[in-house]
Every structure is written in structure tokens, then in C-alpha cells.
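ASSEMBLY PREDICTION REQUEST
Request ID: AP-0331
Submitted by: J.K., bench scientist
Number of chains: two
Total residues: 490
Priority: normal
Notes: Please return the full assembly, not individual chains.
Input sequences:
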Amino acid sequence: MVKIILLAVISLTFLNASSFEENCLNCHGNDFKFNMMMKKYTQKYSSEKRIKEAIFDYLKEPTSEKSVLPYEYINRFGTKEKTTLDDKTLREMIDVYYDRFNLRSKIY
Amino acid sequence: MYKSEKQTIFYVLGLYLSSTLLLIATLFATYYFYKQDELMHAEKEILKEYSSALEDKLLFVHENSDEKYEYPRFENFNSAIYDIDKNLIFSKLDAKIDNLDKDFFFKGSNSYYISSLKPHYLGAAYSVVEKKRKPIDILNDLIITALIIITITIITSFFLVKLVLRPLRDNLRLLDNFIKETTHELNTPITTILANIETLDSKNCDEKSMRKLQRIKTASTTISNLYQDLVYLLLNHQISSQNEELNLSEILNQRVHYFSQAANIKKLNLHVAVKENVFFNADRQKMERLIDNILSNAIKYTGKSTTIKVVLTQHALSISDEGKGMSQDEISTIFQRYRRFDKTQGGFGIGYSIIKSIIDEYGIKINIESELDKGTKVTLTW
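STATUS: Completed
Returned structure:
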């Protein structure tokens, strides 16, 4: 039973990870400053819950006010387009993003 | 020093000391709380500086690291950071902090300062800094200083009170000396009068002169009695008791005889029931003072043509009259010196004061039963 649960969790993780590749990295590519974005979100929203909520909120309805990037950057490149992902998938992607790049787990 | 003088010194000293000590205590308490507040403020300022240093380091780490973030460590203090939802991010503290609402507090031997941070470098919305608490040990020094001041106050106040009361004491001593000298001067004339009346040949006197002579004799006896009381009171603390085995029956009969003249003038019926050969170990003079005072009081305060009963048994002496009696309040204060209930009668109000001092010396118990307008019965038991 334990083996089955463990297997399910691992496969789900890989599944999510591969979804992340597909849904995020596909467009952003590996050169995208994921670290920098997480730093910006952490600096502004502090806790995991608030960070995830802010990312979700922005991706659903991107505006220059909601963006954590500097005004000059937004002014030049504009805001990104709305996400095409459904809410559930989007939240899962944000969870993967947070798990990979959050600052808290990297403090030693 | 008189008892009343001691009492006055005690009261004045008590009042002065309690008010002074209250003032000292208030001053010291105020100083203590002020000093404690000052020390706490200083401690808080140090922690604020530490907190600021931590914030600078957090900014540096946040901006200059990418893959791993080394949490800032300091020699002087420990720290921790919490996110905006008060979840712990990282801690190097000795203790666990549950409440982030108070900005400064003590816990165990440490002091803590909590400050809120914005922007949230490394996600930190609150920082907690912890340092070893600087001991606030001014209390011991304060107690020692207070004790020294209190001791000096007690000593100076004692001399101050003595100084203030000196004029009063001098006046009392003057009065005392005056009474002593006057009493001494009274001795010779009283003795002369009494001795000469005794030796007068009553056969040569007519009845009228005889009655006058008896009155003079009674008056002289009263003065003599007063004189004896005053001498006893004034010299009481100077003479030691010459105790011997006394035949109380004989002494009582003598004293009754001594007062019989005074009783006759008031037409009193003296009912005397004395058990023979009752012995008691005491000073003769003091026993005479004791009996004389009770007996003379009974004669003095009883009405005309009434009965005075004098009963002596092996272990008790009771003298009762049919006078105006006393209330319970009067009985309770009867032993105070100069206490007089009936100002129409002569005397200084020192009789019961003398009685009390003698019965206390010999362990004699006294019981005073009295009813207003019925009479008084004084019983001595031993």
C-alpha cells in the first residue's frame, strides 16, 4: 500500500514537472529569470500563501499595477498576456514554481 | 522617666518615623522604577541597533545571492525572521517566540526586540533579535542605602524627640520636686498635731470641745493618710521592699481602729469579721497602704449611717460599702493615676494607682464588684 502511494506521489511530481516544462518553459525558456521573479515576489508579498495568490492573480489578469517588475520595464515591454491555463492547472504550475524557486528553502 | 513621658516619646517617635519612612519609601520606590525604566530603555536602544544591523544584512544577502542564501549571524546577538503571516522563516534564537505583538520584552535571562520589516528581504516581515539580558541589580544597592538612611533617621529622630520634649520634662521634674518638698514639709506639722491630740487629757475638756477635738483628729488622720500616699508614690521606686511574715489580722484591726474615728463622724456601722492569725509575707508599710486606701475609699464614698463590712479569711480580704457605686466604665479606668470619679470628695485620685502597684508586686488578685447607688465590694485574694 505504502509503495503504491509513494509511486503515485512520485509519478504525480514528475507529471507536474513535465507539465511545468510544457506550460511555462515552453514560452519562457531556460533563460527566463525565474529566480529574480521569485525574489521580487518574496520581497513584496513575504509569505508562501500571499506569493502564490499574487502570482495567480497577476497571471489571470495581468496589469502594470499588479506587476512586481519596475515601471520602466513594463512601460517598455508591456505586461504579459492573460494565461490560457485553467485555474486548477495554473495553481499546480504556481506550486511547482514556488517549490523550485522559493527563497525560504534556500536559506542556510 | 515617667510612664506617660515614655508613652509620649513613643507616640511622637512613631508618628514622626512612620511619616518619614513613608516618604523615604516613596522616594526610593520612585527612583527604583525610574532607574529600571531607564535601564530598560537603554537595553531597548541596543536591541534596536542590532535589529537595524540585521536588516542591512538581510538586504545584502537578498540582493547578492541567487542559489543559496546565507542567513546573517552576529557575535553579540541571535536573531530570527518571520513572514507576514507570522510563520517562522529562519531562527538562531535560544527560545521559541509565540507572540510577535510586543516590541520589547524579557524572557528568561534574555531580552528581545521585535521589529516589522518592509520590504520583506528573504520574505522577512518581522525580525526578532535576542541578547543576554543586562542584569538590573540596583535593588540591592538601593536597599542598603535605604537601610543606612533609615538608621540615621531613627537615631536623629530619637534625639529630636528628646530635644522637643525637654521643656515638658523639665516642667514635670520641677513640679515633682515641688510636690516632694511640700510633702516633706507637711510631715512635721501633721505628726505634731496627731501626737498632741493623742496626749490631750480628755477629762479636762467639756463635751463640745471634745467633739471639736475629735473632728480635728479625723481631719489630721485624713491629711496623714494623704501624706503617706504621696510619700509612697513619690518614693516608691527608690525604696526596696522589707518583706517579712506579717500578721495580717493584727494589722487589719489596727487600721480599722485608726479609721474608726472617721467612721464615727459619718455614723457608720463598721462590721468587722477578722479571722485570727492570718499571715502574709510582705512589706508592712505597703500592706498598710493597701488596706488604708481601700478602707478610706469605702468610708469616703459611702453614705451616712450605712454599714461597712470588713471580712478577712485565710486567703481573702473583702471590704464593702453601701455608697453610690461605680459603673463598669469607671471600674475599667479605676487604676489610672489621678482618676477621680467624684470631685466633691477630697483626694488626688492616686489611691487605686497605689493599690495596683502593691497587688501587682505581691501577686494579689483584686475583684471589684459595684452597682450604682447600691455600693462597692472590693475583694483581694491570694
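REVIEWER COMMENTS: Chain B has seven helices and twelve strands.
SIGN-OFF: pending second reviewer
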